[in-house]
Write a structure and sequence with these properties.
single chain; alpha/beta; 10 helices; 12 strands; globular; binds iron/sulfur cluster
Length: 325
Amino acid sequence: MTGPLDSFGRSINYLRISVTDRCNLRCIYCMPPEGVPQMPHSEILSYEEIRTVVQAAAELGINRIRLTGGEPLVRADLPKLIKMLSQVGGIEELSLTTNGAFLKKYALELKQAGLSRVNVSLDTLKPDKFQYITRLGKLEAVLEGIEAAKEAGFVPVKINTVVMRGINDDDVLDFARMTYEDGWHIRFIELMPFKGAAEFVPSIELQQHISLLGKLESCASITGNGPATYYRLVGAKGTIGFIAPLTEPSFCSRCNRMRLTPDGKLRPCLLGEDEIDLKMPLRNSASMEELKNLILKAVASKPEHHHLEGGNVRLVNRKMSQIGG
Ligand code: SAM
Ligand code: SF4
């Protein structure tokens, strides 16, 4: 752990950067069918501005960066940004979260640009249901994208699945089976109430359901690397992680991250309202010391925990696609 400590003794070493609010899909839990009003291009941080923020963060000991969105691969020349960030001293891991639709096209280029890891968001393995959940997507393109990522050397394949009661909770066993032979690493995420469009399923319920396939062994070695807790079905190559922001009491005590929105706001907590603006300072030629102080201010203002425990639903001030989940 290398990052600056917050007021509750957590080391903040991980920054998730949303590079765009645009997306090619309209997932039912993330965006309305018509999309959300788009930020003007002039409001969105340039690649040079993002690099400056990453340099300041790295000087403070933040050593892990994840690019997200919206859909990061709809932003032009993303491999160029990857290359720029991979050359920043002190960054040990540079990863991407994507819906996978464009991975077939970009996987190799991303690898060559210096990307360390890719996570693909995928909520079902059934083509019709995939189209229902994403409104605009084709499952086949994502599966081809996952294969392309493997071929480009992004091994293991990591999948994030948001589970919604009555919609894809019956797909959980299909995903869990993929950890046996195909070596997929799956993480099941409790749906957060950004729009209240569907009901979340508590992780404990999923664990009980998956136990029908076999014994789930704890993988303590990967715990401590963020908010997920990891297990492995006995005999499986891949792992199964559970991200339980709504039902796990100690969830926030393991939080190691902050978020940067496309328009340059640092968010100490995904589910909080606080934001610290970096765009104006960046555009007014702030010094590295000034930027570092703003980042430290955001670290210091991280709340101890969010207020969604026990499914206490509260909408936050931005859509997930505008923050970068
Ligand atoms: N478009 C990319 C993707 O889908 O992977 C990156 C951005 S997306 C906002 C990042 C992650 O947030 C995805 O894994 C998505 O499933 C997740 N997400 C979106 N809305 C969510 C919600 N209400 N609750 C939990 N996770 C959510
Ligand atoms: Fe787009 Fe990702 Fe949101 Fe789906 S979850 S609408 S792919 S940003």
